[in-house]
Amino acid sequence: MGFSEHGNYEVIKEFSIDDPKVSDSNILIRIDMTSINTLDLMTRNGIPGFKFNMPHVPGSDVIGRIEAIGKNVTNFSVGDKVIVNTVYGCGKCQKCKSGYEAQCPSWKCLGLHINGSYSELISVPSSCVSIVPSGFSDEELSAMPLHAPLAWRNIKKLANAVEGETILVRGASGNVGIFAILFSLALKLNVIALSSSPEKEDKIKKLGKVTVLSSNKPIEELNKEVLNITNGKGADIILESFGSTLGNSVDLAAYNARIISFGVLTGAESSLNVRKLYLKNISILGTHNASKSEFDEALEFVSKNNIHPIINSSFNIKEASKAQSMFEKHNLFGKIILKNRF
């Protein structure tokens, strides 16, 4: 399933392409399930300055079984059930050798740079593949690859969260936001969640001990609420996926706070008070994806802490167009799963 031209959900159609080749260090996977991400819609709509080879197959999340392996692959066998990190690098540069594949100058993302998971088969380097953790359904596993590792990287690796700190999560009802809340609770952080939907606020509260605030309120009122909750201090960690609200995140940040910027859902431009930034000793860190080591750490963490993704609904892969239409309505809570049954 994919598209031959950019447009709305109606351009998603079924078509045939040649089976992917298996190079010496690659693994061929027969995909069982995938899930829908915002990236799928971005590629379908077209990304300014980014040229796609048409037809293009979107999708980044992969779980399935190994169909074939390259001659240099020794740590996997045909039939193994696996899960795939969404990003890999060239494997040769200093960043890759240091374990930072997402920072490789030639990094690739499934469904963006190469054909993705809305398909029967996919060929990926063995270096981005892991055996699936036990204790999870296939639907839950397919909800993890893109969002769970990114939430883990943001909170633990970049923000270096410490028990008792306060984290503020923008877009808390989004899928990275949900994982971020679940991880933060397991790490014993104080969680403030911002949401624009009253219906979703109730669902967020059911995740655990979370203070939920409406992001629809005037900025001045929101600022006062956050300061009141934190006894005038502000948030120690802010997860910033919107982009245009970065300036306000500086206002809400405590001294020595870490703001993690990983998206531009509401715009790529923001004005901020630089004086507040340096006087409060705030760090702003940007990121886009997790490395393979962080991917494995996230999987280990969800397994040890019994953290299960929230599943909204499931569709057959042939209903990908309908599923994307549902995703775009922005009234969802949890992941939409696609079952790759052609």
List keywords for this structure.
7-stranded mixed β-sheet, 15 strands, 6-stranded parallel β-sheet, alpha/beta, globular, Quinone Oxidoreductase, Chain A, domain 1, 342 residues
Structural description of this entry:
27% of the residues lie in helices and 23% in strands. With 342 residues, it is α/β, with parallel strands linked by helices. The chain folds into two domains: 9-146 and 309-339, Quinone Oxidoreductase, Chain A, domain 1 (Alpha-Beta Complex); 148-286, Quinone Oxidoreductase, Chain A, domain 1 (Alpha-Beta Complex), CATH 3.90.180. Helix 4 crosses helix 10 (292-304). The mean pLDDT is 94.
- As a percent range, the share of strand residues is 15-25%
Average pLDDT number:
94
Question: What overall form do the CA principal axes indicate?
Answer: globular
Number of domains: 2
Helix content: 25-40%
User: How much is the radius of gyration in Å?
Assistant: 20 Å
The description of the largest β-sheet is: 7 strands, mixed
What's the gist of this structure?
This protein has 342 residues and is of the alpha/beta class. The chain has eleven helices and 15 strands. The mean pLDDT is 94.
